[in-house]
Structures are given as structure tokens and as C-alpha cells.
Amino acid sequence: MISNFFKKNDEVEVEWWSDIDAFNDPSLDFLRPQKASKFFPEWFKKVHASKENRGVGNIKNCPVFPEYLTQGWIIPMWCDTELYVDDDGWKWNTPTDAFSWEMHSPEQFLHWLPEKQQKDYIWTWKAKCPWKVKTPKGYSMYQLNPFYHFHDWTILPGSIRTDFHFELNQQVLVPKSYKGKTLLIERGTPFAWYIPYKRTKYKEIFVPYDEERKRMESASWLNIFTSFKDSYKKRVKLEDKNEKEK
User: Fold this and answer.
1) Are 96 and 107 in contact (CB under 8 A)?
2) What does the pLDDT look like over 66-81, one tens digit per residue?
3) Of 62, 76, 164, 239, which is the most buried if we count CB atoms within 10 A?
4) For residue 22, with 0-12 CB atoms within 10 Å meaning exposed, 13-18 middle and 19 or more buried, which class applies?
5) Biggest alpha carbon–alpha carbon distance for the chain
């Protein structure tokens, strides 16, 4: 499956495929990696935008969240999965032998955490993900936890150079409240989040707070507060239009 992101003059292709060939069949689209926008949190959809003016609003009015939540792709959990840990050991269970899990021993991660975090968590699982991904040369993928879905478990964030390393094996941190208790992750659950980015170098420049900066700040402020609503979205559309026309 090939998808595109950041639609500009030159589209960048991101290739997805599964080593379990049946997953490549269109009939299983709902278990394929999908644009994050398709997994927009249900609780967020139910928030009613505030009708207050002059900058008074709620999370629905703030452009930061929807812009963030629509970046990249989310891999849904590919099958029902049960994870269990107690003092005697660990075990996992899936409906078919086609899928399996491994674990990271405490010495690999948990034992190195600050003392409080060591007390908060019990285990780090390793998912053997059936999906692979390839980005163009110079592009990597951020692996992120789908935070706003508020799962009981956490995907450890990181970065993968997916222009030459295509394997995705998510590290899943489980809280101590699940000691001796089965953690169920159901098929289709928004599981792991991947956002592509171009590797580049950045240089910080500290500049004086001068008349030019004051004018820039005022213009930025007026961009928001000269419209009753959706001023940020309107500016985004304008910037995107200008970018496409270049």
C-alpha cells in the first residue's frame, strides 16, 4: 500500500506492506495502517466549539490539537491480544499462531528508569508487528504513543530510519496495576502512531527583541483576533494555497 503525505509540488511516497500477505488484501483495509485523521478520538468529536469571542474558547477552538492529531499514520492492533505478568512469569495469547509477542527484560529498560517510574510500571512488551514501512532517502519516522486515546498502556516513543530499516516492533510499557491481571488490547484499537519527517540540521539563532519582532508579534496577534472564528484555519488554507502555487 502506498500513501502520500504533506501534499506539495513534489509528493513524497511512503510505502507500507505486510509480511502476512493476507493483510495486503483490500478486504482487510480496516486493519491496515491508516491516516491518523481516521482515528480522530471519539471524545474529541463530541466537544462543542465555544461560541465565545475574543479568544475565549475550549480545546475544540484551539488549532494545535486537530493539526497534531491528523499527522502521519496509525497502525491499528492487528488481532485481539492478551498480555499477562505476575511473579511467576509472563505470557501472551492471540487467537492465531500467526502473531506473537516478546518481552524486554527489566535489565533492558525498566531497571534504568528513575525510582518512581520503576514502581509505576511492571513490564515492557515487544510487539512483533506484521507491518513494514519504507520512506525515501533522508526521511525517518517518529514512533509515538497515541496519547489522546488514553490507553492503559504506553508505546515508547522513538525515531526509526525507515529509509533503510523497515521493521516496526513496538515497545509497550504496562503499568503495575496489571500485575496478575490480563491486559486486553482489542483488534482495531489505535495502537501505534508514525509520523514521517525529513532528517536535517537546525541552528538556533538568538535575536534581539526589536521593532521588527514587535511588528511580527502584532501581525501574528491580528491574524487571530481580526476574525470571529477559524482564523488560524483560514490562514493555514491560505498558506497551503500559496505553497501549491509556487
Assistant:
1) no
2) 888 999 999 999 999 9
3) 76
4) exposed
5) 67
